[in-house]
Structure formats: structure tokens, C-alpha cells
Records
---
Amino acid sequence: MSYLRNQKTYLYLGFFLLIMIAAHYRGWLGPLEKSGRSLVIPIVSRLHFLNVQAPISGEFTCDSNSPSSTVNNENKQQLGILGARVNILENENMELKKQIDFKSDKKINLVTTAVLGRSLDTTENTIIIDGGESLGIKVNQPVIAGAGVLVGKVVKVENDIAIVRLINDSLYKISGMIINKDNSLGTVEGGYGLSLRLKFIPRNEVVRVGDSVVTGGLETECPKGLLIGTVAVIENEAYKPFQQAVLTPAVDLARLSIVSVLTQ
Amino acid sequence: MFWLKWIARIIKILAIIIGIILIHICVLDFLPFPFNNTNVIIAAILWIFIFNADIRTLFLIIPAGFFLEILSSTPFGINSISLAISLSVVGWILLHILTNRSVFIVFLSGLIAVIIYRFIFIILLLIFGSLTWAALWSGWGIITNLFFEAILTALLLLIGYVVVGYLVKRFRPEYINLRTTNNYDRSTRHLWHF
């Protein structure tokens, strides 16, 4: 009896999954997917905001053991919260100014959006941004932060959101160029936690710690010269045909709040 | 009355799934690498399955898979299929082969679930063209992430199992009676092998 029930459960599970997948590709799940997103994205967004927001500075903290009255402590707490908000708004303002400057300098089309949070993929470094097909965002378009710092590329687009694969993801690869005497070319790869690696640099070219690395421009979608990071460590082994460098990304990829998509 | 019972059950399942996803997002967002590789969704469903010993727990895969699909970068269906196959296989193993519930078996079930999940996930990505063999073998990034995910998920499952097992033994009346009266007979023997 129990054996039969188990068999039925597996069959029903498979059946419901197939129905769900078929309904998605037929477009019947659209309203349900939209409701699901509107249920989960505010939570994702709120948690991401908590992660991104700057810590409250020491001057706003209050000592609960001090003899001052409770009202005074509450006021100090309110002041602390307001101070943190001002800090966040200042950071956002600076970020937007940088992106506007970059846009006017380079004369390119940018779609600036907020970062809603990380996607639910465990092993992938991907983020959800607040803009999709309706804003002209397409798959493979590069995504930048600040004044032209490459942070990733669009890998999936829905009507109202898009998913961006960050440069530190193990599946992200792009040509990189070191700003040195030889303009050394290599391949930038993610998948090493917070750092990146620039591989396949010819051994005879001189690379120094602190050299900047920019996009090489070998891909049709990504323009040349977007900043990726700086060289932190150089690995040049005698028995290997190429040298490689560990890079520190130019922005903190875990604390992105506003990014722009280069729509060309 | 019947419908009310069903509505209550659906709300309960949704609340469980949203709770699991909330913890999953917290782990992804707040923990540093490699701890953010922990797959809370697999650990939680497997944990509920181990404690309930009910095959119907596997139906949690459908809402969990749905939420994973709408907020993930992979083509729709890959996460759900991988999750369903891996947890069904582990569920079958736990019900028919590894029927002992020692900490080693719990740890092993977590490892097997994540390894099968990622294996099917990668195969489906290769079939759908979202991943190429060249990208798969060009670096150790994917293998390293898989290693951390398997170990950390199995550890989370193990910790959950041990902590809740301890609390159950400590506070459930059956155990308290057994400890105080030393009334150990065949009918309650299974409780001592928790």
C-alpha cells in the first residue's frame, strides 16, 4: 500500500512539474509569475538594501547606560537613522552623477536602474535589476556602475526585470587589457570569490601590482576601455607558458545599488 | 469545511516556502564567500522530509521550484527538474536503502542531493545551450562552487537535524517519561534510536 502511494506521489510530482513548465512556455503562467515576483521582490530588495546601506557613524550612536532621559535616547536614535539615510542618499547621488558624467562624455545610450537584489541561484553571482524589455534592455548588453566600471552583462530579460551575471561569476569571461607599456591582453575570469583572474598574459610582458585592467574590446557587445579592476597579485611560474594576475574589482560587487545598462 | 482545510493547507505550504526563500536570500546576501554557497532550499526540504518521513513532502518542490525559476538566470524548468529528480532519488534512498537516521546518513543524504542536483542542472544547461563544455572545463570555479555547496548544505542539514533532535528529546513528553521512570519497553524502543 505504502509502495503504491510512493509511486503515485512520484508520478503526480512529475506530472505537475511538466504542466508547470508547459504552462510557462505557452505563456499561461504570466500572471502567476508576475504575482510571485511582486510577492518576493520586495523582500529581496529590502534585504539587499539592508546589506548595501552604510553603517551608522560613531557620532550618531547612543549610550544606553548614560544617565540621560529615555526621550533623549530616542531622539539620538532617530538622529542616527536620519544620518544613515542621508549617507545612503549621498552615495546614491554620487553614483548617479558619475553615471550621468560617463553618459555625457561617451555619448552612448544608458538605461540606469536600481539593483533589486541577488537572484536565487546559489552558485552563481547574478543580480536582479529593476528594468527589462520595456526599457529596451536585451541579453548580452554590458552593465556598468559609477563612471564606466564594468560589473557584468545581462543574461535574462523579462518584461519588468532583468538578470545580470556579475564579472566575478564562474561563467563570466571577457577579454581584458592591462594599462601597461605593452597593453597586455588576457582573459578575465570570475569564480574565485570576490576576486577575478586575468589569464593568458604573455610571459615576456611586464605587469606590475596596481596596474589598471580595462575591457579589451574583442567582444562585439562590450566597448573597449571600461574599467574592470586593478592587479593585486602576479603569478608568473617558470614552467607555465602564460602568466596570470589576480584582480581586485574596481567596485564592491556585493554592494551595488544603482547600475546602468549600455543599450548602445 | 473541506475547502477551508485545503485553503489552510495551501497557505501553510506557501508560508513555509516563503520562509525558506527568505532564509535562502539572507544566506546569499549577508554571508561571505564560500558560506553564501549554502543551498538552504535543498537542506530545508530534505530536513522536513527526514523529520516527517512522508513522501508527500516532495510536493514542496513545486512552489519552491516555481520561486527559484522566476528569480533565476537559467531557462525556466531547469531548477525545478533538477530539484525534483535529486530530492526524489534521495527520498527513495532514505525510505528504502539508508533507513537508519544516524548523523552520517543525514550528512550523506545532503551531499548526494546536492551532487545529483548540480549534475542534472549542468547536464540540462549543456542541453539547452546555456553552458558550453569549454566554459565548464576552462576553470575550477564551477567545481569549487559545487564542492562548497555540497559540503555546506550537508553541514546545515546535519546541524538542523542534531539541534532539533536534541530539542525533541529534551522537551517531548515521551522522552521525559522514559528518562524519569526508566520505563523502557519494546513499544517505545524506536524513540531511543532517534
---
Amino acid sequence: MIKLSHVRKAYQIDNDVEFVALHDISLEINRGEFTALVGPSGSGKSTLMHIIGLLDLPTSGEIVINGDDISHLDDNALSTLRNEFVGFVFQQFNLINKLTVLENVLLPTYYARKKLSYDPEKRAMEILDRFGIGSKANSRPNRISGGQQQRVAIARSLIMSPDMILADEPTGNLDTKTGDEIMALLKDLNREDNMTVVIVTHEPDIAARTNRQIRIVDGSIESKNP
Amino acid sequence: MKQLTITIQSAIFDFSRNKGRTFLTSLGILIGVLAVVLLTAFGLGLRVFIEQQFESLGSNLVRVVPGKILQGGGFRGGSSAMGTIRFDEKDVLRIERVKGVKMVVPVFTKSITIQGASESIFSDMYTSTAGVFEALNVKPQAGILFTERDVSKRSKVVVIGPTIAEKLYGTPKRAVGNTIKVESQTFRIIGVAEKKGGGFGGPDFDSYVYMPYKTAFIFNPQKTFLALIILAETEDSIPKVKRGVEEELLVRYNEDDFSVIEQQELIGAISSIFSMINTVLLAIAAISLVVGGIGIMNIMYVTVTERIKEIGIRRALGARKSDILLLFLVESVILSLLGGAGGLLLSAIIVFFIHPYFPAYISMESVLLALGVSSAIGIIFGVFPAKKAADLSPIDAIRYE
């Protein structure tokens, strides 16, 4: 579904000093996988996540999504791809507090370029109900608990029916119990809805709950399935 | 469309959370629009006011004055403007023969000090024939007007304006029959004219003293006139009368010695001066709009910085650069329009309270202009901050804390 070949990401720090965040990364994530990108902080896993999430382009290398090379797409095309291909879940939830829970969930549909085959509002309510927070639809995100906020964020990532959910430290801001619930929810989505889920984490415990771990150390993939 | 509605809603929600800041930001535009709309309202009012003043004099009038004062629609300055020649009774007789002329009213005016029973006041004496009352549309509210007989008999009578009557004797009725002294000569007040208003820009008819011109030869030993007011038979005959009078006067004077002016030309000239002054004032007021716009730009830059994270979130969810640009443009336009609408409302209230005293009014054009200009300012001064927001890299924005 998404395939990275020889992806390299380097940042120019000074005129002649270069910081290489990712060396020659090649990996493929297939439909229906539940994968973790694991690594200590500074390993380059966040950079890799940004590239998989189309927030950033590699310095060199190729990214193929559903058969199409996207390395040369312009900003508008990348925006549309972010909108349709990937659903983000962040450590900080990243909800917009001046919008209601429902409006937050609907936000990606405001930027949709394709015609949606469903009624976005009805679908948003279905997802919220499924996650047990339907009653909070008209609340502001800063008035509900952290666990509820992360559920809203997951609902938002699902509204466009993306190919993949990309969750960056989804439990990082939650207590263990709530974190477990969120992980269970993501696992559920993977198992029951065959949703492709990629989790970025530095916690081996969290990574252990997925089906596949990709370990990043110093900008390179250490080894697959150790 | 739906996106725009939501954008507007969220902008309004933002503003309602930051009421103080929204108000202060809009205040600049509010003051600018207030200044522009009020100035336009007063400019229009002043023009109407002046036109009303002149129309109350009647529209069949042609004036002959010394010197060349009107040229190409405006007043001409310079030494010849005041003129040196004076007209006399011979000119009056010649012009009375011109075809289409109903009446010639010679005018001699002089600033005088009037001594009443208790106090003395300054005034303008307007000496003429009895026809002056018809030409200037003057009617008595008490007593009577002087007649041709009074003129030929050199009767020592005067008709005074209501302002003078009130100052000297309290009411017009009480003034009639009393006397006033002008330069130690005593004159009997036989009538008080109706109120005409005036003062702003136009002549203040209410403080005139009208006197038969032959009586006034005491003050005018050369027996000359400063102006001749000609009443045409009909409005249509005015051009013909104008030409005839010019031909008649050219026999005795040079072309540059006198001007024959239609009432309409005079109104046009005065209006053009006022509209020029108004334009200058409007330009000054427009500067405050620019200052208000800079205020909006300033606060929009702050807003963009405060909301970098939000921009990042929206970009991650699929918003394009143009979507972010629109988001901030909508906000700056709303801010600016709020100010514009506030300024408009405030000026409407001010004009409402001033209207009984002065014919100021807000035209549809100035409403549209105020709203148009304030949205334009919102766009012009909002586009740079919005561009800054749109050009943020999604990755930097989402990581911003």
C-alpha cells in the first residue's frame, strides 16, 4: 500500500554541515497491518512518520502509494493525499478547542476535494457513538477528559475512510489505564475493520501489542521482527 | 460554501472570546469610516444647504458685478477680482431696455453701525429699489415693505431683518414704528422681514437693513452701485438677457471690467469650492482608514503566530495553502467590516441628531463605499499575514509548541 525505497532525509544545518535524520530507509506497509515504528527519541522515527504521513518529503528516494510515485507531487496534491490517504492521531490530541467535538471530527471533510458517498455528519455521529462519546458531540474538546479527546482524534482520523491511521505516541499523554483503552480501540479497528494502523512509539510495551515492529536506530532500520 | 460558513462561524467565535481585542482592532476602522462617512454627509448637506439658500432668492436672477470674478466655473483670484468700476443710474436705465428684462435692481451695500434704543450693533445695509424685495423674495412678517414712492421721496424708512429686530427690540412687532440711528441719521422702521436663515457660506439676510437707495445717497455721495440684480421675465430668457446686458455694458466698459453671472453659475462655483475642500478633508480622513488597516494587519500577524499549531493541524488534515489563506482573510475582512459597520452606525446616529439643525445626510453611495472600503482594507491588510500563515510548512506548524 505504501512503499519506501532508499529514502534519505537530510537537513542542512550550516553551509557545509548536514544532519542526516534518515539513511537509506526501505520498507513496505501492507493493507491491514498493525505496525509499530519503535525507537528511542532522536532515532529518526518522527521524521519517518512525517514522511509516511506526507507531511514532509524525503531528500532522496522514492515513495509509492497504491502504485503511484508521490515524490514529485506539488503541495496541493500532497494536501489532498493527506486528506484522503492518511488519518492522523497525535500525542497532544491536536483538537481545535474553538470547534465542538463534532466539528473537529468533521474538519477533514471541509477540505475534501472528492465527493463523499456518505453524509459526513451522520457518519461522524456513528463513530462517536461507537466510541461511547456521542453525548459529547456538542462539547468543546477542552471540556472532556484526555481519553475522550484521544477518541475524538481517532474519530477524526476515520471520517474520510483513509487507507491508514498514523498514530504518533497516541498514549503518551494518557495514564496507563486510559492508554490501554486507546490501544485496545486501535487494535479493534485493525481487527474488525481491517484498518491499517501504524503507531510510532518509544515504549516497547506499546509496540509489543502490535503485530509488527520496525525498530529505528540512528536513522536506519535495525532489523525486522527480531 | 459550507466551508465558508464554518470559517465565518469559527472567526466569530474567536472574536467573541477576544472581545476587547476585537473591539480595539476594529476601532481604527470604525473611526476611519466614521470620519469619512460624516465628512461626506456634511459635504452633501452643505451643498444642499447652499443651494436652498440661493433657490430661496429665486432662479430668474442675473447679477452684474464689477471685475471678472467667474472664469471657467471657478472664482478667479488676482487684482481684477475686486474690480474698480461702479455702476450708476445710467446703466440701470440702459439695461432696463434690454429685451426679456423684467426689472433691474441696483444694489449698494455698506457695513454700518446701528444704534437702537439701548445698544448698537454692526450690520450690513442693503440699499436698493422697492423691486429688491421681489428679486430676493423678501416678505414682511411685521409692518410693511418700502415702495417706489418711498424711493423717489427719499423717505427715511428702513426694513430690517428679524435678527436685528430681535436684538434691538425683542420681537419683530415691537420693532415696527420704532427708530434706529445710522451715522447720526434717524430712520423709522416700517417693517421686519421674514426669517430666511443663512450665515454658513451664504449671505446672512436676517441681519440686513434694507433702505431705499435714493435715501441712502447720504451714505453714497457718488450715487454708484456695487451690483445690479436683473430679474428676467422667465427662466428660459436668461441666456438672451445675459447677452443683451453684456452688449449694453460693453458700450461703456471694457470686457474685463464687469461680469454678468447667472444664479446657477454662482451656485456651481460655490459648490465646486466646497467639494474641493471636502475632497481634501476626505483624503485626510482616508489616512485614518489606512492606519486602521495597519492595526488589523498587526493583530492578524499576532493571530497567525498564536495559531500556528491550529494551522499545522488543518494542514495535516488536508487543508491546502489556499484554504489557510482564506481562513485568515475571512477573519481580517470580518474584523474590518465590523469596524466599518460600527462606524456607519455611529455616523447614522450622529447625523440623526444633527439633522434638525443641518441638512446632513448619508447617501446610499457612502454606505456602499464605507462597506466596500472596509472589506477592501480587510483584504489588502489581511493578505500578508494570511500569506504568512499559508506558507508555513505543515511539519513546522504541527510541531510548534
